[in-house]
Amino acid sequence: xxxxxxxxxxxxxxxxxxxxxxxxxxxxxxxxxxxxxxxxxxxxxxxxxxxxxxxxxxxxxxxxxxxxxxxxxxxxxxxxxxxxxxxxxxxxxxxxxxxxxxxxxxxxxxxxxxxxxxxxxxxxxxxxxxxxxxxxxxxxxxxxxxxxxxxxxxxxxxxxxxxxxxxxxxxxxxx
Length: 175
Fold this sequence. Notes:
Mean pLDDT: 87
Strand content: under 5%
Order of helices and strands: HHHHH
Number of helices: 5
Radius of gyration: 38 Å
Low-confidence stretches: none
C-alpha cells in the first residue's frame, strides 16, 4: 500500500451527528398525556399500594406454619359423640400424611447419600440406612395391613391387639 493515502477517497465519518432542534409553539401531546396519567392514575394507585404494604409489614402472617390443635384421640371420645369421632378421624389422617412424608424424606436422604458416596455407600450411609429401617418399621407397626380404607378405629384396634400380644408374650416369658 502506498504511503500517501488519498483522504478524499476514504472520508472519515463525522465524529458527532448533528441533532435537529425542533422548536414549535405547540406542546408535545405525548408528554402531556404522560404527565396526566402519572398524576391522575399512577400516583394514587402507588400511594395506596405502598400504604397497604406498610400495614401488612407490621403484622406478618406465615401461612405455611399453620398448626392445628390436637384433638382428643378416638379412645378418649365418649360413646355417641360423632363430632369427636369425626375430629379424631381427621387428626389420624393428618398424622398418617405426616408420617408418610417423614418416611419419604428419610428415603430421599438415603438415596442422596448413596448417589454421593457411590461404591462406599454401605460404609458411609450406614446411619441413614439404620434410620430408614427404624422409620419404616415404626410406620409399618402403626399403619401396616390397614389397607386403603384404613381409619382411626381399625388402627386403634390394631395397636390394642399388638399390646395384648406383647403382654401375653411377656407373661409367658416370665413363667
